[in-house]
Every structure is written in structure tokens, then in C-alpha cells.
Amino acid sequence: MATDADRCVEAYYAAFRAADIEQMMRLWGERPDIVCIHPGSPRAHRGVAEVMESWLLVFARELNIGIEPKIVGRHETGEIISLVIEEAITRPGDVAPTGTILISQTWRWLDTGWRLLFHHASHGRRSPPSQDGMFVPDGGGNTRH
Predict the structure, then answer these.
(1) How far is 69 from 38, CA to CA, in rounded Å?
(2) SUPFAM superfamilies from the xrefs (predicted)?
């Protein structure tokens, strides 16, 4: 049985894969304190206008990558959903995932339903090439912080 968190993730990835700015922005709270950070972004985007602009830039790039999200952490209450998601990324020409994006999201129940308040995505590990020049999906990366 799908939980509210599962439905939020499904809606997010449907909007992302469709590169549909209207669908994406319907997921966000219409509040000045929402925050979105994309991988490699030089800053946090705050407020509806900045968040929308940041997604327009993402959607303007070629999005021909395969994305397989997996929720690796969750906390749900009646009003808040906090998620940690690991995306396995497959790039054109790769036969298996070769990297990850790590995401944290906070959703809040508002009068209009579940709305995204915070989204932070950052680069995870990138698999090193094998001796044959093929990427090894689960190889490499003992990064510590």
C-alpha cells in the first residue's frame, strides 16, 4: 500500500521526468521560505520565483538520463514528511547506473495538500571504470565526511 511519502515521490518524479514546470511548481508550497538546491548549484534558491527559475534551467538541459529513485530514509507525521532519496543515474551509452544523486526533501501538509518546502540534491559517488573501460555500478567510492 502506497504511503503519502510514496505518493509525494511519485508526483515529484512524474513532474521531473516530464520536464513540466507547471506540474513541478504545483508540488511546491507557495511560500517565501521554500528552498531548492540542485547538484553543483552555487547557491540556494529561495522563494517561488527563484525556485521556478532554477527548475526552468534544469528542464532546459538535456534530460536523457535514466533515474531510479530509492527512498533510503523517511520520517512521516500527520503534518511533515522528511525523505532521503538515493537516485541511481544511468547516462546515455551506459549499460548500468554509473553514479548517484543524493536528495533530501521536506514536505508539509497545507490546506492544498502535501507541498514541498525544501529540496536539496547533491552529487553522490561516481563509479570508476573497470579495467575493460566499462563502469562498475557498485564499485568505487569510499568517500567520507
Answers:
(1) 16
(2) NTF2-like (SSF54427)
Full residue range of the structural domain in which residue 18 is found: 4-126
Parallel, antiparallel, or unpaired: how do β-strands 99-110 and 113-126 relate? antiparallel
In this prediction, residue 124 carries a pLDDT of 87
Q: Please, which residues bridge with residue 116 across strands? A: 28, 107
pLDDT tens-digit series, residues 6-31: 999 999 999 999 999 999 999 999 99
CATH number reported for the structural domain that contains residue 12 in this entry: 3.10.450.50
The pLDDT tens digits for 101-115 are 999 999 999 999 999
